[in-house]
């Protein structure tokens, strides 16, 4: 028997991208080549086969775009600090470690208990029991005084808008000048959840609707880039298999609104005196 899973409703969704990466790693033209994901799926006692549909490949495409955001940061700050907020069973540190960075993975205690079955802390890698919604971990990741990159993938979507906005303001205040990568989903995407074959198999539902990532300026975030699956970074798109590597104009016609309103965004946290009015 493998490791048993005892996760909250939202935390259970971390198994979806894990299975997507494992499925991708078995392909000859794998995007992420995440063979560790194959090992994790084999070691966990869970019916992953209930997950099917485009969400699995979407998780891989999303990960590749976010990876490239972090590579860009590390090209400028090779000794910088990266914090994966709501990391789940991500293997991003293994994919992006340059031998110099400082990396923190943060998630709730039930997720971290499972994660620690497969990963261990080291001199440059630390796992933290904590929540993206709280700030009690801020000082730990700021201790080195290095530039910070914050990434949170498929986490904030599951919370109400007020909670998300408060959390983003808190992050911007706590890490001024830092980069932050998050995903956002528009109204069309949120309305389509019950038609998604993956979401039919889990109880959690996404709540936060954000049709325009630029509006998050009110939270202290300056939008630097906003991409979708039709507009990856050129360096990333060239590595995608042919079935994904098509012209953006074609994809924008073919892809339905639930996909085209899903954005992968890169922000910079700005100082308080640079922010627009917070009045909502």
Q: How would you describe this structure to a colleague?
A:
By secondary structure, this protein is an alpha/beta fold. The chain has a single domain, classed as 3-Layer(aba) Sandwich (Rossmann fold), CATH 3.40.50. The chain contains twelve helices and nine strands. The strands form two sheets. A seven-stranded mixed sheet has the order 5-4-3-6-7-9-8. Strand 3, helix 5 and strand 4 form a beta-alpha-beta unit. Helix 2 packs across helix 3 and helix 2 packs across helix 4. It is globular, with a radius of gyration of 18 Å.
Mean pLDDT over the residues: 90
Distance between the termini: 52 Å
Poorly predicted runs of 5 or more residues: none
Please, what is the CATH homologous superfamily? Vaccinia Virus protein VP39
**CATH class wording:** Alpha Beta
Instruction: Give the topology string: H per helix, E per strand.
Output: EHHHEHEHEHEHEHEHEHHHE
State the shape. Answer: globular
Q: Note the total helix count.
A: 12
């Amino acid at each position: 028997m493998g490791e048993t899973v005892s996760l909250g409703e939202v935390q259970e969704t971390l198994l979806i991208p894990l299975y997507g990466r494992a499925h991708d790693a078995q392909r000859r033209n794998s995007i992420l080549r995440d063979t560790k994901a194959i090992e994790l799926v084999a070691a966990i006692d869970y019916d992953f086969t209930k997950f099917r549909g485009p969400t699995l490949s979407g998780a891989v495409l999303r990960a590749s775009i976010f990876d490239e955001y972090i590579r860009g940061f590390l090209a400028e700050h090779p000794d910088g600090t990266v914090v994966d907020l709501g990391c789940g069973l991500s293997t991003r540190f293994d994919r992006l470690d340059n031998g110099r960075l400082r990396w923190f993975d943060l998630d709730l205690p039930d997720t971290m208990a499972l994660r620690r079955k497969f990963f261990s802390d080291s001199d440059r890698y630390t796992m933290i029991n904590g929540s993206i919604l709280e700030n009690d971990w801020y000082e730990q990741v700021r201790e080195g005084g290095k530039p910070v990159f914050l990434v949170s993938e498929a986490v904030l979507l599951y919370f109400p808008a007020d909670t998300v906005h408060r959390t983003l303001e808190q992050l911007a205040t706590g890490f001024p000048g830092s980069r932050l990568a998050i995903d956002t989903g528009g109204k069309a995407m949120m309305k389509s959840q019950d038609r998604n074959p993956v979401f039919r198999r889990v109880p959690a539902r996404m709540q936060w609707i954000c049709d325009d990532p630029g509006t998050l300026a009110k939270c202290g975030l300056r939008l630097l880039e906003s991409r979708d699956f039709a507009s990856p970074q050129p360096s990333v798109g060239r590595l995608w298999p042919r079935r994904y590597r098509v012209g953006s104009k074609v994809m924008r016609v073919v892809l339905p609104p639930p996909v085209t309103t899903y954005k992968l965004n890169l922000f910079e946290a700005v100082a308080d005196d640079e922010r627009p009015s917070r009045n909502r």
